[in-house]
Design brief:
The structure is a homodimer. Chain A is mainly alpha-helical. The first copy, chain A, is built from seven helices and three strands; from the N terminus they run ααβααββααα. The structure holds a DNA duplex.
Chain lengths: 146, 146
DNA sequence: TGTGTTTATATCGTTCACGATGCAAATTTA
DNA sequence: TAAATTTGCATCGTGAACGATATAAACACA
């Protein structure tokens, strides 16, 4: 068996698995309010700055518009956001939070901490997390390539 | 703006993004042989040990059988694996590599290194990667909870 | 002004993920 | 051994991801 093909040597498999498992950890907390994890990410973006065009949201999340557009339509159908043509640029669709979308923020106040608590362990502590962030940011920066 | 909701403070978002970007880095290398990234993971598992039941493959990848079953069927349709009823336990489906499936290994020999090279940077080096592995393994171990 | 190009978003098709559920073989237990 | 339970795999439905492509508005420039 070639050592380089060992599953346990693959950084990618660890990232892929950790990402999936953390998303699963969010699931019960979010589904209570009819949200998925990517929809929660959109909310994070809009809570930071309301009324953004689709493209800005997609860029912030490093996703393509063909992923974000259907996602936003589902959120519109749920009454969480509105989508309206841009005033100065008619190509843009401006996404705004509804009252319901803004209101979700206080209902989800405990979510970040709850998930964070579920992750902390021997080698992942408030002291080591910045280092982990740094490495992941390096990888992301290298791969997004722009 | 509540600090705990800042996108940049979310570990999950970094893992999710890093995972997606690395998968994208694999894409051109794998699609040349008609493979997807999850299918490549299945190959890694079978190259380590051929002739495993669906359940063992799913457990190794921490996926559910309802994800792995259709994936294996597509790989069977591509002539990469065979699926046959288990001898001693008729509920099991034993997955075996075909000659083509085994042959893919030498064609993909350079893949792990190519992807690894694309990731190495300031804070991600042969010296720091073991620490990164350890933290991710801790997170995975904590979340898979068994 | 007209024509070509870029930009913003959307549509389509395929492949994951995964919760919920179904089914048949194996196992346990009464 | 019959009945209940567990196990292994599959089906179904929904929601991402994303490559390829389409469409219309904005822009550049001849």
């Amino acid at each position: 068996m070639d050592e380089r093909f060992r599953l346990d040597n693959q950084l990618c498999f660890r990232l892929y698995t950790a990402s999936r498992l953390i998303t699963q950890a969010y699931h019960p907390l979010l589904s209570e309010y009819g949200l998925t994890y990517p929809q929660y990410l959109v909310l994070l973006v809009l809570w930071e700055k309301d009324g953004q065009p689709v493209n800005d949201i997609a860029k912030r999340l490093l996703l393509e518009t063909n992923t974000v557009t259907p996602l936003l339509k589902r959120m519109e159908a749920e009454g969480i956001v509105t989508r309206s043509k841009g005033r100065e640029d008619a190509r843009q669709i401006i996404v705004k939070l509804t009252r319901k979308g803004r209101g979700l923020q206080e209902k989800l106040l405990n979510v970040p901490e709850t998930v964070a608590r579920g992750i902390l362990c021997d080698r992942v502590t408030p002291e080591t997390i910045p280092g982990l962030y740094g490495m992941l940011d390096d990888i992301i920066g290298k791969l997004k390539g722009d």
